[in-house]
């Protein structure tokens, strides 16, 4: 059975309909990415999946006993408030230290537990939010523009971490991103949303779909072409955070 099934969903705020006739499902262990322009209803869709928005029409079915983890777009914490990462992760009900350490390790930041929240970099902060979502051992992880504010190498590193989490825990992932070119290699399936589902399929299929290009065609992504190759050289000559790679992955380059 699907973890989540969205069936003919429409969402309205007052007289304004922001989503119409959206149907999708998320299966065990898959990574599904939702892309779409600002205001296309991406967050509303995620919020309906967690039960925070009532549909005007259609329905959302979550598998009974489904454990959800949610990584928000951003979270404001008063910078004058002294609070360690471990304390933050223990809120609100108290979480065992071993669970906190385990979640931080899974999020790729094993040594941050005693750091002050106010001193974290943007990338570290998002990893801590990821750790917070992982504490409950979710079967479905929902990410709402979780890399907003990170630069491209930071975003790419974050998505690689998501792939590692999926591989190690087997959880499914449903994420929103503006950055199809960055999430490309991490996603099994992409859904392009603009008030309705414009197109969907593998990242390669969506990137070349006319509907996707009509939406993003005037931006950089429209000028991007995808190529895939295997290589094992380093990237010292590129702006790629100095990481070497020895695995197959996707690259984008301009088509011009
Ligand atoms: N609580 C609300 N009340 C009224 N209108 C809302 C509410 N939440 C969202 N909207 C409107 O619904 C539309 C879709 O918003 P939503 O946040 O779902 O889109 P989005 O694709 O996530 O946008 P963005 O990429 O800018 O975050 C927007 O026009 C927004 O102004």
TrEMBL record:
It is an enzyme of class 3 (hydrolase). Residues 237-256 are annotated as: Disordered. Keywords: ATP-binding, Cell membrane, Hydrolase, Ion transport, Membrane, Nucleotide-binding, Translocase, Transport, Zinc, Zinc transport. Its EC number is 3.6.3.-. Residues 4-219 form the ABC transporter domain. SMART domains: AAA. GO terms for biological process: response to zinc ion; zinc ion transport. The keyword Transport applies. Pfam families: ABC_tran. The keyword Ribonucleoprotein does not apply. GO terms for molecular function: ATP binding; ATP hydrolysis activity. SUPFAM superfamilies: P-loop containing nucleoside triphosphate hydrolases. This is Zinc ABC transporter ATP-binding protein ZnuC. The gene is znuC.
């Amino acid at each position: 059975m699907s973890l989540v099934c969205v069936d003919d969903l429409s969402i309205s705020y007052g007289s304004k309909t922001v989503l119409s006739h959206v149907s999708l499902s998320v299966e065990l262990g898959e990574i599904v990415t939702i892309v779409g322009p600002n205001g296309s209803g991406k967050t509303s869709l995620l919020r309906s999946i967690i039960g925070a928005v009532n549909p005007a029409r259609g329905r959302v079915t979550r598998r009974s006993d489904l454990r959800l983890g949610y990584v928000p777009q951003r979270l404001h914490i008063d910078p004058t408030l002294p609070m360690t990462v471990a304390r933050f992760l223990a809120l609100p009900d108290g979480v065992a230290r071993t669970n906190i350490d385990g979640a931080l390790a899974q999020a790729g930041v094993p040594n941050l537990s005693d750091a002050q929240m106010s001193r974290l970099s943007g990338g570290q902060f998002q990893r801590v939010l990821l750790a917070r979502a992982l504490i409950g051992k979710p079967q479905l992880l929902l990410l709402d523009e979780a890399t907003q504010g990170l630069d491209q190498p930071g975003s790419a590193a974050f998505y690689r971490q998501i792939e590692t989490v999926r591989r190690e825990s087997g959880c499914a992932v449903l994420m929103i991103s503006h950055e199809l070119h960055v999430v490309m290699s991490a996603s099994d399936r992409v859904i392009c949303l603009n008030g309705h589902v414009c197109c969907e399929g593998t990242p390669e299929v969506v990137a070349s779909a006319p509907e996707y290009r009509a939406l993003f065609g005037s931006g950089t992504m429209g000028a991007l072409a995808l190529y895939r190759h295997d290589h094992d050289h380093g990237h010292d000559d590129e702006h790629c955070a100095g990481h070497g790679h020895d695995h197959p992955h996707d690259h984008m380059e301009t088509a011009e």
